[in-house]
Specification:
This protein is mainly alpha-helical. It is built from twelve helices and no strands.
Length: 246
């Protein structure tokens, strides 16, 4: 939940939302299909929407962090170099100009610094809040520079920013090439849902869904929709960098 920026949402609230959506989805499934098992499967699918939304929000935040870090690293390099800021000062100053989604993490780290003046604990708070491999690498670089000193921090940050910039561009190119496939993937949900609704007005309509054979076909169809959606998402997923400095 922290990684998705929903640290103010408790587990009980999250479970309650899922339970409510399961009930609403089950009721809608009963209205359309007139059977217990299809209604239950429909309710479970609808109840999974908060989990999917959480994962999407988390992925958006990680993508935003990946795109923002090259600029943030360059700003830290300038502040610790020509501007003469200390490493903590540069980090917090850059954090105030970070994208709104990332600022709470920098604010929490700044509060830790004001309370403890322990940069190691401050960096740990920032890494935990951002939960991003690039943030890990940047924070550990700054931590070593703060504790050991040295004159090569600017060069190391410059190399890190260049590497991150190349990675971001490669990911953008890959996502652009997948645009048509991602659009087509939505039809995995739209077309079957439309056909199910149209089926209500054809022949005996809802009565056909209420037969044992109709119930079995509906359940199999719902399961196949889920399998196709998950499978297509898996083959399009770009590899995530592992957090090796946790």
């Amino acid at each position: 939940m922290v990684q998705a920026g929903l640290d103010d949402v408790g587990p009980a609230e999250f479970v309650a939302v899922i339970g409510g959506l399961v009930a609403v989805g089950s009721a809608a499934g009963w209205v359309v299909f007139g059977g217990t098992l299809p209604a239950l499967v429909t309710g479970i699918l609808v109840g999974s929407l908060p989990v999917a939304a959480y994962r999407r929000r988390r992925a958006r935040r990680r993508q935003l962090a990946q795109e923002s870090w090259p600029r943030l690293i360059d700003q830290i390099r300038v502040l610790t170099g020509s501007a003469g800021r200390s490493v903590p000062q540069a980090l917090f100053e850059v954090g105030r100009a970070a994208p709104p989604e990332l600022r709470p993490a920098f604010d929490a780290a700044h509060r830790e610094w004001l309370l403890s003046t322990d940069f190691s604990r401050t960096v740990a708070v920032l890494e935990a809040q951002l939960s991003d491999p690039v943030a890990d690498a940047t924070c550990e670089t700054l931590l070593i520079a703060h504790e050991l000193g040295g004159t090569d921090l600017g060069r190391r940050l410059e190399d890190l920013a260049a590497d991150r910039r190349a990675d971001v561009q490669d990911r953008k190119d890959a996502i652009a090439k997948q645009a048509g496939v991602r659009f087509a993937r939505r039809f995995v949900l739209i077309v079957p849902a439309g056909m199910a609704l149209v089926g209500l007005s054809v022949g005996t309509g809802r009565a056909a869904y209420e037969t044992p054979a109709g119930q079995a076909v509906v359940v199999v169809a719902l399961v196949l929709i889920v399998v196709c959606w998950l499978w297509s998402g898996r083959i399009m997923r770009l590899p995530d960098e592992r957090r090796v400095l946790r």
